[in-house]
Queue: 4 jobs
Job 1
Amino acid sequence: MPFARTGSTSRLPLACLFWLLAIPAGWAAPVGIVIGLNGDCIISRGGNRTPATLSQSVEVGDTVEVPTGGKLKLRMADGSMVSLAPGTRMTITTYGVDEAGQRQEAKLTLEKGLVRSEVTPVAGTPARFEIDTAVATAAVRSTDWFVELNGEDMQVNVLKGSVETTSKATRRAVLIPARAASRIRIGRDPTPPARVNMTALNGLVGRTLVRTQVRLPPRGPERPNLERRPGQPDRSHTAARTEASKGVGLRHERQRPPERQREPERQRQDGPRRPHERQR
């Protein structure tokens, strides 16, 4: 099922317009899919609780629950990744994208647990990506970060980029840079950002790490060129083979034995050297 797209429908075929008019009033378009799953996770929609499955779509208003020992990973419509640690409960409050798949606004509500968000940058107009809790709101444009809520305590750790965190009670905000963290207690200001060592950040990565179990389309220049015309050779593969062949040639050159290692071969051809010849 395709992801949601918002914007003008003037270019849609007439048949598509009739189809859109026939959609039930309560229907909502998907804004992401489940691409990684461990344990008996639950997705609640409209009061109905169903077991999460791989490739299952999620919609605005859905609540994702991850039990102790479970994990879940979502790929959102704009390409952002959201990973939930064991014991996490999160609701997709808002998630809008345009016709090109660019994020317009996104808001996730964290009720408890730990969430990692790897947010895709948006070209042109900046689009916020927020994680909201009862304690504070954390917002970014594009970054890799963690939000953990434990009762009345919230902590934001930033792996890459920067995150603005605002206390709901005092409206005071701090900007947290990469490899730093801030802690917020309900009713108080966020603490000044403090440096975090990579051991602590790697621990958060491990708690939210979920293996991708759904095949995703190739992305990036290092992958095969999927936009080539029919019959046109895949130059990315050709270039890769060329570079590989160059590398093989270099490896062969590096593997040529030095002069001293070839000495026994000369002895086999010319016969054993006399004692006074070996001393030279």
Note: The longest helix spans residues 235-254.
Job 2
Amino acid sequence: MSDDVDQCPSTPAGSPVDGYGCSSEQRDNDNDGVYDSADLCGLTEAGATVDQDGCADAQKDDDGDGVKNDVDLCPGTEPISVIDVNGCSDSQLDDDQDQIFNNIDVCPATPIGEMPNSEGCSASQLDDDMDTVNNADDLCPMTDVNPSLDVDGCVASQRDTDLDGVTDKDDDCPNTNSTSISDDDGCALEQLDSDNDGVNDLEDDFPLDALESKDTDGDGVPDRKDAYPGDATKTKAEVEEQGTGMWVWTAVAVLVLGILAGLGMMKRNSDMIEKVSPFTQQVTQQGQEETQLLQEAPAERQEWEENGVKWSRSPEGTLYYYDAQSEQWIEYQQ
């Protein structure tokens, strides 16, 4: 080629040239700064940054996933992986942002902010006891499911609705007041009527006596039998006892007067017959001795029961009542 038309006058001998006399070692058709002989990407867009091979990111696919580097959001995709339009496989994605990649995330839609387990599931996505209530809302996490299951994931054997310390399954009184003390069956005194008299045990002064329920003065005597229902120091039994005592003392007084009168008559008779017969004197003396023995003989202790209360009076006249709790006789203080 003549020099007047040769744009590449120093072409190496034997090199193929184009119509301008230039070989590939002298040409750069895409103007990327890499001669065509070394340019692996001959049609690089103008202005694109290229590597030493003359290739821009838009022309390369380093991980071979079919998505060019300039639009590949996951540049290190494993070979033969299924990818999305962004060049990412499930092992490179975390759609719910729970730090567990999609390919091992059992719960792919974990709510933002909830702590997942190693499988990518949070408490709101799990139901360990399979009671249809998720772990986050389940107040009883190890439920043995039965028809008594409630919205909190608890059955009767796990619930204590009235907070009395007895589960609903064993609670005979499920609505015990929170301020009351309950028994092993979950019942407080105000929920029981042990004697079935229609008065609850809390208000029944005689909870085991169906015929009685009120003792206003707390003296152990029912109001309907108590002559003084408002005075714990007096009872009907005392009144009756006082009446009985008066009769006893009256009888004693009559007896004593009779004995004294008899002694007086015996004295006069003795004076009259003292000189008549020694035998008569002996009989008189024997009668006097018998009278003296009668007077000196100790009285016996008296016991009786009045209105369910056992009473006793000593020979000296002291009144006692029997305390069943201590199993002792207690002196009655008037």
Note: The helical segments are 236-273, 278-296.
Job 3
Amino acid sequence: MAKRKAAEHQNPSNSAMKEIRELLSRVGNDWADFESMNNVLMFSDYSKQLPKRNYHATQLISAMCTVIEAIAEHRGFDELYHEVVAMQQAFLNSMNTLPRVDAPIPQIGIPPPRSGPRAIQSTPLLSDRTLLGPLALRPHHAMSLIKQIFLVPNSIRSRTELAVFTVPQLTYSDKELGIAPPTDPEWLLCRAQDRAYTYRTRALETLAVIQIQYPHGWDEDQASFKIHRDKVLPTLDPAEGMYYGFEVGEPCMAMFPDTTTFYTARVLEKPSFDNEWCYSVKFETDDAGSRPIFCRFVIPLLVLHDGQHVLHSDYAAPDHEAPTKEDVLARLKNAEEKARGEEGEGKTEDSADWLLSTHPEPDVEM
């Protein structure tokens, strides 16, 4: 009898597996609701929305505990089962005693995709000091290259991540709350829409983009809109070999934590292996002394001059040449070989190719 019971624990029935899958699905739904409420807290009456957010937190923890209970029960881990039940009850008791009105607004702390500590640790170029890390591209070099790139047909590939100066679109949660549509443009996180075929025969005067729906990610069904190239700055991912390089004290635009908006800031500390490739910045209108911002979300500060966005005058002229495409690809190749533990072919030109490729003189329609 004991052997039969042990076998049942090691080989759960189809009904048990179905139950666990359904419970995992519930966890996913509760998690999405919880993150949505975290986002709502930033744009609505905090004291009114906090109880609803705490309710979703309770639902999420309860759903996770239920999954663990089911697995423990079917696997025969009786001690774990009772421990989880006790933990769940303790959490529910603590939720009932939380302050609901006068508590400080929480720092939500949901890192954007490919930017958290786990992603950094899994990227040899960002975690292995022997590989020297990604290369810094100074603002003057970056703006010069970007202007050239926009003249080349099909240079900005679909899904390229961009900072775009545009009026924010309301998220689904905002619409449900009846929030009035904004009217003032901001620098927002967007990406190039999958319409590459429209760029193959002419220079990029305008670009079709879609805006992120934080915290739900990219909505493929969301309507795209066109933006002039003067109001577009591609982000640079250090995992792909490059990032925008700033000196301490220089101005920049950085994406404020738990938003998709870039605000004016000053650099207090440069990124390195020691700080997980984050700039330490001080936002102009922020009471906090400094905030760490992953260098992928720190871009040059542009200002309006005669109706066009130009580089801020505080940037010192670069005293060295810009990194070449070969420099970047060499570091990426070394990182790939280190990860494989053997000689590899190196990373292809897909990484920073949109910014570093050497193109022939374009025959474009202007």
Note: The CA atoms of residues 337 and 343 lie 5 Å apart.
Job 4
Amino acid sequence: MRIRLITKLFIATIILCLFFLTIYSYTVSIDHKQSFSDDDIVLINKSTLNIIVILSSIFFFILLVTWRFDIKQMNDSAKKSYDLLQQENTKLSLIVKSRADELQQSKAELDSFCYSVSHDLQGPVARLDGFIQLLQSGCESIKDEETLENLSSVRKNIDNLSRLINSLLAYSRAGRMAPTLEPVNLSQIVSARVDYLLLTNPTIQVDWKISKDIIVDADFKMMVIVIEKLLNNAVKYSSTIDNACIEFSSTSIDEQLVYFIRDNGVGFNMKYADKLFGVFQRMHSDTHFDGVGIDLAIVKRLIQRHHGTIWAEAEADKGATFYFRLG
């Protein structure tokens, strides 16, 4: 700081010297022509000019030195700022990594807990159902209708509980599955699932539109589950309308290949679309459509295991389209 102040004062002094020398030279040339000979005036002007050139050279030299000094200070300051930024960036990266590791550990622990609870509850629930069946058999012999009705209600709730447990177990397993990539013909999986649906439920009246030979690199078993649950979902929510139509095909969105299953069923309000893939989230009452609200959450997990994404577009009473892409 002191060096820069001294430099500024020195430059100001040189500028003043140049100014006074110029004035002096001009004064001599004009006012003292009679006191000095022409040769003296020429000599004075030359001397003044030489002094001005020397002082100007010193002036520009000092400017150059000062400029280089300022550049060095700027470089040093920039380097310190860069080093400080790198240190803060390293600290931030470590914090983010630590939080991500904690989140991943918590997620793994939650999955493990969910799997353990679901698995361990299967046995007690099955035994409880067996005891209720024995009670029903005993009550049938004594024709106690009220007790039979109550026991039937209990068995229905046990069945719902069993389905919830099995769904949680399937959800947990979906998060544990490691995909083995291979060429998979999604069109063949869709066709096979449609044949199974028609075989097990001949009353299904649907106009099927299936594009041929849509092949992806994916895990075959996972894709079977994805297609199964998406088709079941489309069939379920198209079952209450006439002229039901379900389509499987692919398209390009944002220059990326996307696969979709579309139906013209009851659809849903897009206002609630963010809840669609949550666990135990339902768009419709279970009095109208059966289910526990976890199948789409399983589908999302399996798609994410392929580093892909899934989303839906729908309109109430006009059907829904489920899109997914694989990474």
Note: The chain has a mean pLDDT of 79.
